[in-house]
């Protein structure tokens, strides 16, 4: 991040700490910044191009906020949020269900002045984007906010995009888009690696990306993030909704996604005696290979249905998707047969804000219908064994993924070479494994013998808890299968 961006992020974030005393969370603060930044930038654009029409009525624009004194500011701000939330397109996407969380008018006035002092419209798109990304990362670091599950480490995203090699004119989807990290990285990759003509630039800005997320506030952050990076127009490329609920109406060349962690989908039922119960949420879709309440297994199936024939996918999945029996085994068998599942990146723990998560990136290409299996070899890169990362002291860096990128061999992935960490397993070898498990390791874990350098007790306890929860999930899956029979 540039020095200019860092200074502005720190200035804005320091003021957040002032608001924390009033009970304003990091998440709430970033939301309020989103509303105010958007109004300020539209105001600057209008002044630079007076003939350009704006969808924001004059009585609800940035100047109207500056004119109000502390006595009338809070009520006026509430009216702005309420009115703009009813608009269509990008405006509605940013302000939908918006609320003022800064109850002290004096502090709201100070925040407005803080934003007003910077000329956002004159900043380079990269600088504006960096500032907002910096705020989103700060928000993700606040464990209590839960925002971390919507924030994928940027070095991992960059590496995934680099090996997927998006090209001008391709369509790209993320059905669990979070704050839009995959879109930004793909946009940067295409912009930096190709000399685009006017038509290609227009397509990249308006037609390349399509995203969805189930959480209103997350969609708001994503839309604003794309807007600050110069992506999208009056219509929002991101919508609020449950991606898994229905058969997709559109298909895409590339799907890049990291669905939120949490093994089961469920909903709450309240009976006549007002007692609550959690019931598994089952998605009944004719285009799915298997019916399951495992959210990630459903996302894996959904991603396959989103792809055009010969389309490419990269999806982050937890370990349980690789080894669960029942529906999990059915899905793996079908995926290996109907798609070319060519690469699996085993990720180390300690890189996600959701602690204790053991995850992987699965790369596959959708293929035409065939009686023969499309997967010939699955290449697995082990970035987990004897690798230790933490969010602050030793975070995952882009350089840590360089060997994986080299081994992936994007120029000719059918001519790969095995290394200590990169091994190939044939289709027949995978079929012979118990439950067609893809949970494969071969390196010796030196930490098991190195008693002097064991992880901290809380890390060990967390791993034990994860393993127990995973075993319980498997027993629950077996019970559900038996109950349905």
Assess the beta-strand content as a share of residues. Answer: 5-15%
Question: What is the number of strand segments?
Answer: 11
CATH class of the largest domain: Alpha Beta
For the record, give the distance between the C-alpha atoms at the N and C termini, rounded to a whole number: 56 Å
Radius of gyration: 24 Å
CATH topology of the largest domain: Rossmann fold
Helix content: 40-55%
| Succession of helices and strands | HHHHHHHHEHHEHEEEEHEHHEEEHEHH
The helix tally amounts to 17
At the fourth level of CATH, the homologous superfamily of the largest domain is: Vaccinia Virus protein VP39
Mean pLDDT score, rounded?
84
Shape: globular
Q: In this structure, how is the largest beta sheet organized?
A: 9 strands, mixed
Architecture of the largest domain in CATH?
Answer: 3-Layer(aba) Sandwich
Would you tell me the structural class of the helices and strands? alpha/beta
Runs in which pLDDT lies below 50 for 5 or more consecutive residues are 265-278
Strand arrangement across the biggest beta sheet: 3-2-1-4-7-9-8-10-11
**How would you name the oligomeric state of the polypeptide chains in this document?**
single chain
Whole-number tally of structural domains: 2
Descriptive report:
The protein is an alpha/beta fold and 485 residues long. The protein has 17 helices and eleven strands. It has helices spanning 3-20, 26-48, 62-67, 70-84, 89-95, 105-116, 125-141, 154-164, 181-193, 198-206, 216-228, 295-306, 320-323, 327-338, 402-408, 427-431, 457-484; strands at residues 172-174, 209-213, 238-240, 252-257, 266-270, 276-280, 307-318, 339-346, 359-366, 377-382, 422-426. The strands form two sheets. The protein has a nine-stranded mixed β-sheet with strand order 3-2-1-4-7-9-8-10-11, with helices on both faces. 38% of the residues are buried.
């Amino acid at each position: 991040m540039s020095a200019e961006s860092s200074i502005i992020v720190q200035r804005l974030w320091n003021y957040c700490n002032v608001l924390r005393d009033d009970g304003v969370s990091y998440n709430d603060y970033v939301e309020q910044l989103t509303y105010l930044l958007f109004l300020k930038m539209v105001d600057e654009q209008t002044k630079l191009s007076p003939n350009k029409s704006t969808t924001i009525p004059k009585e609800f624009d940035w100047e109207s906020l500056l004119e109000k004194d502390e006595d009338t500011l809070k009520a006026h701000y509430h009216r702005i949020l309420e009115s703009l939330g009813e608009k269509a397109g990008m405006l509605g996407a940013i302000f939908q269900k918006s609320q003022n969380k800064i109850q002290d008018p004096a502090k709201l006035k100070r925040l407005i002045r803080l934003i007003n002092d910077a000329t956002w419209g004159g900043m380079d798109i990269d600088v504006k984007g960096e500032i907002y990304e910096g705020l989103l990362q700060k928000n993700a670091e606040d464990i209590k906010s839960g925002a971390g599950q919507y924030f994928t480490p940027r070095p991992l995203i960059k590496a995934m995009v680099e090996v997927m090699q998006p090209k001008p004119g391709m369509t790209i989807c993320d059905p669990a888009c979070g704050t839009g990290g995959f879109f930004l990285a793909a946009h940067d990759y295409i912009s930096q690696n190709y000399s685009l003509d006017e038509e290609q630039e227009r397509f990249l800005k308006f037609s390349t990306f399509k995203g969805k997320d189930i959480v209103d506030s997350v969609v708001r952050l994503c839309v604003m993030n794309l807007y600050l990076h110069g992506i999208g127009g009056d219509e929002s490329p991101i919508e609020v909704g449950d991606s898994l609920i229905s058969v997709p109406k559109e298909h895409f060349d590339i799907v890049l996604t990291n669905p939120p962690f949490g093994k089961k989908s469920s909903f709450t039922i309240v009976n006549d005696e007002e007692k609550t119960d959690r019931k598994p949420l089952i998605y009944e879709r004719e285009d799915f290979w298997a019916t399951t309440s495992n959210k990630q297994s459903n996302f894996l199936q959904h991603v396959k249905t989103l792809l055009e024939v010969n389309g490419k996918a990269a999806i982050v999945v937890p370990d349980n998707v690789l080894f669960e029996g029942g529906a999990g085994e059915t899905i793996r068998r079908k995926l290996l047969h109907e798609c070319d599942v060519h690469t699996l990146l085993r990720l180390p723990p300690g890189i996600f804000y959701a602690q204790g998560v053991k995850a992987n990136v699965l790369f596959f290409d959708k293929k035409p219908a065939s009686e023969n299996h499309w997967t010939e070899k699955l290449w697995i890169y082990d970035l987990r064994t004897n690798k230790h990362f933490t969010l602050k002291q030793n975070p995952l860096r882009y350089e840590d993924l360089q060997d994986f990128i080299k081994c992936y061999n994007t120029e000719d992935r059918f001519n790969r070479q095995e290394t200590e960490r990169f091994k190939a397993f044939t289709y027949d070898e995978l079929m012979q494994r118990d439950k067609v498990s893809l949970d494969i390791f071969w390196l010796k874990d030196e930490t098991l013998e190195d008693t002097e350098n064991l992880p901290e007790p809380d890390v060990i306890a967390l791993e034990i808890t994860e393993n127990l929860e995973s075993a319980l999930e498997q027993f629950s899956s077996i019970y559900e299968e038996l109950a349905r029979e």
